């Protein structure tokens, strides 16, 4: 069993005159730019970005219009080429029909096979001759 202490216990005490005072507040560095400055900088950045984006949209729209105008300018030439191809293939088809049906009496190559007065582009024109 432990024996009781005969002497008084020694307690840690502050130094004579007390401890030096110290600050418990965090010492944060002073901000370099204010809240209003951050807001103004953000607003200016957004304004410049929107301006640049708007200028890009104007340029892109102009390029799109130019492309559309170029395509519209060559449409008559493409249509003329397609018409010439159609005439060439139609004549080739009529020549082939005349060759095949030469032994059939009363067969007319230029006779319409449909009972209509309206003209339409036939879908059966042979495309093999193009390639």
TrEMBL record:
It comes from the Eukaryota. Its main location: mitochondrion. The chain crosses the membrane at residues 33-54. Keywords: Electron transport, Membrane, Mitochondrion, Mitochondrion inner membrane, Respiratory chain, Transmembrane, Transmembrane helix, Transport, Ubiquinone. It is a single-pass membrane protein. InterPro entries: GRIM-19. GO terms for cellular component: mitochondrial inner membrane; respiratory chain complex I. The keyword Mitochondrion applies. It is found in: Mitochondrion inner membrane. Complex I functions in the transfer of electrons from NADH to the respiratory chain. Accessory subunit of the mitochondrial membrane respiratory chain NADH dehydrogenase (Complex I), that is believed not to be involved in catalysis. Belongs to the complex I NDUFA13 subunit family. This is NADH dehydrogenase [ubiquinone] 1 alpha subcomplex subunit 13. The lineage of its organism: Eukaryota, Sar, Stramenopiles, Bigyra, Labyrinthulomycetes.
